[in-house]
Design brief:
- The protein has 452 residues and is α+β, with helices and mostly antiparallel strands.
- The protein is built from 14 helices and 15 strands.
- Helix 1 runs antiparallel to helix 2, helix 4 crosses helix 12 (332-343) and helix 5 runs antiparallel to helix 10 (232-252).
- It is globular, with a radius of gyration of 28 Å.
């Protein structure tokens, strides 16, 4: 007779009890791994020893956490200098490992910014993503590529700043097309002095810092002076610049004089799903927003969801001085301390009760409710489609992943293949892939051979 395999719960309990004996009574981060080596959970604790003893004794466990403990096959501990550092490290691990039992921020992409360089005699304005490695002034974040492109086009129309690369700037002998369509003042060929160009740069920076009224006021004075001098061509050019600035200032303006720099979050959860809507406010202007749908469990509370979301959201993003939300996040004081440490200045997290700040949060909450409603409706429709797929192909359960392939070539050469992925939540663009197809025995133009 073969011996029965040991009970997994006993195995997990013995493992965690052994870890508890060796765990230090210090703050840190612990990671729990399953049988296949995947990370199940990442947590932080003021005392690693006390937290692991709780797991070993089966205390404070929901059914979900109990299942997680039963599946644990190994643990890794990292000691930190303080609980604040543990919180930052926990967010970093969750974002990288995406553990099964944590609240996980999905579809997290970097936001675009506008950068005006400061290391060139004729500063260039350009769209930027990623770390601030180039010397210059950065403005943003912008929630969408459309928003940053629109603002960039407006800056070109209103301030005639160059957007070309340094190599193009240095080799120009005559103005390019952008100058012909009145999008650049052509400092490359000396059609504007560097001093006058520098004034345009200063005006652009002032506008992006929220001083749009002062900039438009100065331009209005220039237009009136040109008109009085009978220089109607110059007056018309300045008028066009004023119109461009007025249009974007009107679109971005909000009644938020008390929010010089801040991000507004609103969380709405329903049916085991959650939506977090974020809006970015800089210099009294709304630079756009975006809805996120973190992976959550029905047992997660709103304060826990928002705390986990904020930690992961700001793991690789600049943190503003003020964060407003409709929910008081779990361990708010610790979160403020961690963000202040990371930003090297005081960061406040507040839940407003009245006034224009409350109006901003309510506006975000309305958007969160509408976005989650659309999401739930789309999920329901997607479920019906997958049920029909099951019926058509005789499947026992809904498919979790559907891959669609297509191949292409140029008269038999340069063969490529494309893969599109869909699942229960619709198309998963992060999983799309393109393949360069090579093979000595591949007959040119053989689609079946390319598929193989």
């Amino acid at each position: 007779m073969t011996a029965e395999p040991p009970d997994s719960k006993l195995t997990a309990a013995a493992l965690i009890a052994d870890e508890a004996r060796r765990a230090p009574d210090k703050p840190g981060v612990y990671r729990m791994y399953g049988e296949d080596g995947s990370c199940l959970y990442v947590g932080k604790a003021r005392s690693l020893k006390k937290r692991i003893v709780q797991y070993a004794q089966g205390r404070f466990h929901t059914q979900r956490i109990g299942l997680m403990v039963a599946q644990t096959r190994s643990m890794e501990l990292v000691v930190t200098a303080s609980e604040t550092e543990a919180l930052l490290l926990e967010s970093n691990f969750i974002k990288k490992l995406k553990p099964r039992y944590n609240v996980v921020l999905r579809d997290d992409k970097s936001f675009a910014e506008l950068m005006i360089r400061s290391d060139h005699r004729a500063p260039q304005v350009k769209k930027h993503r990623g770390a601030h490695t180039t010397p210059g002034h950065y403005f943003g974040p912008f929630a969408s590529t459309w928003a940053v492109n629109r603002t960039l086009n407006t800056l070109q129309k209103a301030f005639l700043l160059r957007s070309c690369s340094d190599s193009v700037y240095e080799t120009r002998t005559r103005p390019c097309m952008l100058h012909q369509i009145k999008r650049c003042s052509a400092p490359c060929t000396g059609l504007i002095s560097l001093e006058d160009y520098g004034e345009l740069v200063d005006e652009a920076e002032a506008f992006l810092r929220g001083k749009s009224r002062a900039v438009i006021g100065r331009l209005s004075g220039e237009m009136q002076a040109a008109s009085d001098a009978m220089d109607f061509e110059q007056a018309a050019r300045v008028r066009d610049r004023i119109r461009a600035l007025s249009a974007i200032a009107m679109e971005n303006s909000v009644s938020a004089d008390s929010v010089a720099e801040g991000d507004v979050f609103a969380l709405h959860s329903d049916g085991g799903q959650a939506c977090v809507q974020v809006f970015f406010y800089r210099a009294g202007q709304n630079w756009g927003g975006r809805a996120y749908f973190p992976r959550v469990d029905k047992s997660d509370t709103d304060p826990e969801i928002l705390a986990a979301f904020l930690g992961q959201f700001y793991e690789d993003k600049p943190i503003p001085r003020l964060i407003l939300s409709n929910v008081r996040p779990h361990e708010l004081e610790l979160l403020e301390e961690a963000f202040s440490m990371k930003a090297d200045r005081k960061v406040e997290i507040a839940r407003p009760q009245r006034g224009e700040k409350l109006a901003l949060v309510d506006h975000a909450l309305t958007n969160a409710k509408e976005a989650l409603g659309r999401r739930l409706a789309e999920s329901s429709a997607q479920g019906k489609i997958l049920d029909e797929v099951c019926e058509a192909f005789g499947l026992e359960a809904r498919p979790e992943r559907i891959e669609i392939y297509d191949n292409a070539h140029i008269q038999g050469t340069n063969a490529v293949g494309g893969m599109v992925v869909a699942g229960p939540e619709g198309f998963q663009k992060s999983q799309y892939r393109k393949f360069n197809i090579r093979g000595e025995d591949l007959t040119p133009g053989d689609d079946y051979g390319m598929m193989r």
